[in-house]
Amino acid sequence: MDRLRIDGAEIEYEIAGTGEPVVFIHGAFIADTFRPLMNESGLVNRHRLILYHRRGYANSNPAPAPGSVNDEAADCRALLHHLGAGRVHVVGHSYGGAVALQLAMDAPELVHSLALLEPVLMVGESAQAYRESLAESIERFRDTEPEVVVDAFLEARWPGYRSALDSVLPGAFEQAVTDAETTFGSELPGLLAWTFGEADARRIGQPTLSILGGESDTLSPRFGETHRMLQEWIHGAEGFVLPGTTHLMQVQDPRATAEALRDFWARHPISAPGISTP
Length: 278
What we know:
- The chain is 44% helix and 18% strand.
- The chain is an alpha/beta fold.
- The longest helix is centred in the middle third of the chain and has 17 residues, at 127-143.
- It has an eight-stranded mixed beta sheet, with helices on both faces.
- The protein has one domain: Alpha/Beta hydrolase fold, catalytic domain (Rossmann fold).
- It is globular and about 50 Å long.
- The protein has helices spanning 41-44, 69-83, 95-106, 127-143, 146-157, 162-168, 172-178, 180-193, 198-201, 221-233, 249-252, 254-267; strands at 2-6, 9-16, 20-25, 47-52, 88-93, 111-117, 208-213, 238-242.
- Strand 3 (20-25), helix 1 and strand 4 (47-52) form a beta-alpha-beta unit.
- The two termini are 14 Å apart.
């Protein structure tokens, strides 16, 4: 992977394909959840795909503690400026969905469209319980082996995940354990300090797609609640439910995820030229 120095730190990134630029912003724990999409011909033959590892993940420099959703958005913005990307399609998963929303508010001139895969938002009736759960998990991490905590988090979001994850992304669980200090020591405290509500959502004017795993509501009502509220709050936002998947949908069914994204971008093309590499 190539490396870029941003504000005293280095992050790693790679680019595949040709066409309209797309940047993937990964969530917590697993830095390579979007890697399966880098091999989907329906995307790579039509788009230039940018995958990067946020601070504290894989070989990118360690993240500060506590972290900041705003700073994460600034990192992505700096990467896009470095690449001369112009306007891009932005895809954010989980914590990366929060970063994508912040980026859309901070740099609307860069964000052509938003695709949000179950972003971590504390909204609606589930907000307080979710906030308390995250705070408790930070404390639990300090007293428990990282392998145990990471396994519990992933199991709650994708029951029976391990064999499928190891098949699609070998070594991803072990890397998630290595990166767990970033998740619990930097990102979750930063997320708890971040605010996003209806007034913020109504600032977003870009075409937006909210994707919900078809089985996610059986795991937690917050997934469906967030999905519905995004469609209510963001003018013209579209919703899509991906059958048979939960929170790590792009790993569980990369082909169907790629098709949903491709169809969305086809409805909202970028008229400007695609990305140029430095």
